[in-house]
User: Fold this.
Amino acid sequence: MGTTDVGTFTVYSAIGNREDLSNVIYRIDPTEVPFLSGIEREKSSAVKHEWQTQALDAATSTNAAQEGADADTDTATPTVRLFNFTQISDKVARVSGTQRAVKTAGRDDELDYQALLKGLALKRDMETILLTNQAQSTGLYDSLGSVSNARKLGSILAWIYTNQTLNTASVGATAPNGATIRIDASPQSCKAFTEASLKTVLQSIWTNGGKPDVIMTGGYNKQQFSLFTGRATQMEDTGTKKIIATVDAYESDFGKLKVVANRFQRTRDVLVLQMDMWAMATLRNMAEVDLAKTGDSDRRQIITEYTLAARNEKSSGGVFDVTSQ
Assistant:
């Protein structure tokens, strides 16, 4: 093979060659929010969103009445009134006037593009907030009677109380009202996620009347289902001859549950949920708001106000303090 003649004009000397920049922007950061997408929606009309639960009389085996006797009045069981505060979450995109004027690749307007990214990021924040260890605000105002502290909703971990397995070194929510956070065991005290612990929670939920349909867990413990006897049967794709080892369903003694991996929940928690017993109550739907100009730039706020409605926490439960690696 010959060498390039010294007089040959090549790209290494050229000045006017146009750049080759693809008009596609590639993004792999996850945007799936399975809890936020799977729970129901309802409307809130105040920053303190309220609802009621009702319990029936305990079943008894001694209900026998004498013939001809006067009827005795049974004590009525009142409803329980619960509430959660709405939380405001937002993201703000800001782009200079110059950047909006130049020609860009992969998007027409830089501010629109940045606002889109912030909207996706806001949904990830909301998923994380709903599944984190956060108690609701103690009141609409802080101890000084001002509004300097942002309102916070009680997350799902502050509501699950009745059906749970805990490490002896941890303390769960002290009441089913969203008002207290969990006290976690140290990572060194966490134990492996086992099928026995899952069955304990499932039986407790069933005893209390729940009908869970989703098991939600982090990636590490999603893999642990491969060891469970109740997992879905391993399948073979006859077309590709590949073994499909993923476990997307669990056949329990109390029904079939879908197994969902969630990147935004705590990896030490395994949630067993009846999804229609949880709802996101929205006071203000997510919206984009153009903010006032304060210089040579444009700002856009993506904002929403919402809370978590725990319609009846006895419907769900969790296996907590599990190892995650």
Q: What stands out?
A: The helical segments are 34-38, 97-101, 110-131, 195-207, 219-224.
